[in-house]
Automatic annotation (TrEMBL):
Keyword entries, A-Z: Metal-binding, NAD, Oxidoreductase, Zinc
InterPro entries named among the record's database cross-references: ADH-like_N, ADH_Zn_CS, ADH_Zn_typ-2, ER, GroES-like_sf, NAD(P)-bd_dom_sf
Domain Enoyl reductase (ER): 21-336
Species: Streptomyces angustmyceticus
Name the record gives this protein: Probable alcohol dehydrogenase AdhA
Keyword NAD in record: yes
Catalytic activity reported: a primary alcohol + NAD(+) = an aldehyde + NADH + H(+); a secondary alcohol + NAD(+) = a ketone + NADH + H(+)
Highest taxon listed in the record's lineage: Bacteria
Length: 339
């Protein structure tokens, strides 16, 4: 049992297949805030597929024994002397992006997601698979007090990244959107697209996910490799499956755009220029997000009354949450809560 000056949590001790047990339980001293930091008493932390990629070694660790988790909802229990936007008791959210240089040409141009010195929660610094987390105040988001923390947590990465992917897909007004894979991020991005008047076609291997897609208002839901019922103006690939890139490109209408949303993707097979790219079809990647993306998405989510589907797990069952995510047993978003 951890004492008052320690926090219980999980670290990625030995990256490898989830069945090998890459997470290890730890107790560590509670963090102390630097001048610009917040210490959060964690109310909930979403479990992102990026956490799975880190645990399994698809993404090489940036530091040993890091606490994963970057969809953190918590209450401020301490703030550094330079912090003015938050005070003790405020609810705040910690997300994937946790630091940029602010002076490079990307930062100056509003593309801080491409900053070569960018830093990420749960990769470059400890995240939210724990009871107390340290978050830079300049990269934290104020969150409403009157909402369930488990429903807010997935907004902080799944929602924000899905929103950026939707914008990168260049979906025209009233357009036809295809979504490949339908987990945490996809089910939120789909609702934004629907609220903006799009027709949404979901293509995923999970029967439960197809049911959720139809319940949320999708026009159709089929298997991952199926052809949608109409040509697509835009598509987003959320599944980390490179084999689906040519499938999605072939489903695009002329001048359509495919945005690949994942931080990790299995190898993409050879593309046939005439079949996949001709007629000015576009293939785009999505890299992290900017804080402006986060602010825009959170405002949009509040305005449209976004519905968040979650599968809650106690913090003590974090390894099970990752195992279920790997096996596509999670409906919506997995979220950890204190035991």
């Amino acid at each position: 049992m951890a004492g008052p000056d320690t926090v219980s949590g999980w670290v990625v001790r030995r990256p490898g297949p989830i069945a090998s047990g890459p997470l290890a339980a730890v107790s560590r001293p509670a963090p102390e805030p630097g001048p610009g930091d917040l210490v959060l008493d964690v109310e909930a932390c979403g479990v992102c597929r990026t956490d799975l990629h880190l645990a399994e070694g698809d993404l090489p660790p940036h530091r040993p024994s890091t606490v994963p988790g970057h969809e953190i909802v918590g209450r401020v229990v301490a703030a550094g002397e330079a912090v003015t936007a938050f005070r003790a008791g405020d609810r705040a959210g910690g997300a994937w992006l946790r630091g940029t240089c602010g002076v490079c040409r990307y930062c100056r141009a509003g593309h801080e997601n491409l900053c070569p010195k960018s830093r990420y929660t749960g990769w470059d610094a400890d995240g939210g698979f724990t009871r107390t987390a340290l978050v830079p105040a300049d990269y934290a988001y104020p969150l409403p007090d009157d909402q369930d923390a488990t429903l807010l947590a997935p907004l902080l990465c799944a929602g924000i990244i899905g929103y950026r992917a939707l914008r990168r897909s260049a979906l025209p007004a009233g357009g036809r959107l295809g979504i490949y894979g339908f987990g945490a991020s996809a089910h939120l991005a789909a609702q934004v697209a629907l609220a903006e008047g799009a027709r949404v076609h979901v293509l995923t291997r999970s029967a439960r996910a197809r049911e959720l897609a139809l319940a949320l208002g999708a026009s159709s839901a089929g298997g991952a490799y199926d052809r949608p019922p109409e040509p697509l103006d835009s598509a987003i690939l959320f599944a980390p499956v490179g084999d689906l890139v040519p499938v999605a490109l072939e489903a695009l209408d002329r001048a359509g755009t495919l945005a690949v949303a994942g931080i990790h993707l299995s190898d993409v097979p050879a593309l046939h220029y005439q079949r996949h790219l001709f007629y000015e079809r576009n293939l785009r990647s999505v890299t992290a997000n900017t804080r402006q993306d986060g602010r825009e998405f959170l405002a949009t989510a509040a305005r449209i009354g976004i519905r968040v589907t979650v599968s809650p797990y106690p913090l003590s069952r974090a390894p099970q949450a990752l195992e279920d995510l790997a096996a596509d047993r999670v409906q919506g978003a997995a979220v950890l809560t204190p035991d």
